[in-house]
What we know:
By secondary structure, this protein is α+β, with helices and mostly antiparallel strands. The chain has two domains: 2-166, Beta-Lactamase (2-Layer Sandwich), CATH 3.30.450; 172-237, no CATH class. It has helices at residues 2-10, 16-31, 69-75, 137-168, 192-205, 221-230, 249-255; strands at 35-42, 45-52, 63-64, 81-83, 109-117, 120-129. It has a six-stranded antiparallel β-sheet with strand order 3-2-1-6-5-4, with helices on both faces. The protein is elongated.
Amino acid sequence: MLQQSLLADLVTDVPAPVRLQNLVKTLRQHFHCGAVVLLKRDSDALRPIAMHGLVDEALGRRFVVAEHPRLATLLASRNPVLFEPSSSLPDPYDGLLSDQPGDALPVHDCMGISLYIEGQCWGVLTLDALQPGTFNDQSTIELQRFSLIVEAAIRVGSLEQQVRALRQNQPNSGSGNPSPNNLDNEIIGKSSALRQVISELHTVAKAELPVLLLGETGVGKELFARELHRYSKRAAKPMIYVNCAALPESLAESEL
């Protein structure tokens, strides 16, 4: 059932951050643990990009690998690593668990695995449980298997981003005029009110200012957003779509 749940998101059109957030939430439920965190490698540090069980402010942290021996151990191995409850290595999530915010972690279980995309180390996946004995050798075998799905989800998200970028960089993109081969993106209408809105849209598109488009559902806000992007100084760059309604609150705040 777990594998089916994880694989279902890979064939569903959802934003990559939501897919990864669903993934860590599902893994936490399966392993009955206190926290699951997906961390991406960022130079000499690791940065959380999806998590379940940590306080919200942990999303803004950078864990310098040299200062966190458990994370360094995970990066140094291609296999799952299980830290015994008696391990003296400090835990990077002291004070960050949502179940015990601000408190040092008591003796507990911890395991994790490094993640690789196209042969390159991408980051790590960590699992923490406050109850000693939650993880065992069977848990590490399962983690090894599920890590392949995690890597696939990361890879799919990367490919989706590349596809969006390629679509935005098709011929005539960024020319300041609608593409004749993409008439679905044209705003059709000749009323004075519509001409005025389009004129204002083209004017504000040249400014380095955020623009908020308001309107009832179905009136074409996305069409006007594309028009705004097409006439802006950023027209040659990808237009990134983020479905904020589908994002968890903590991720939406971080994204915005």
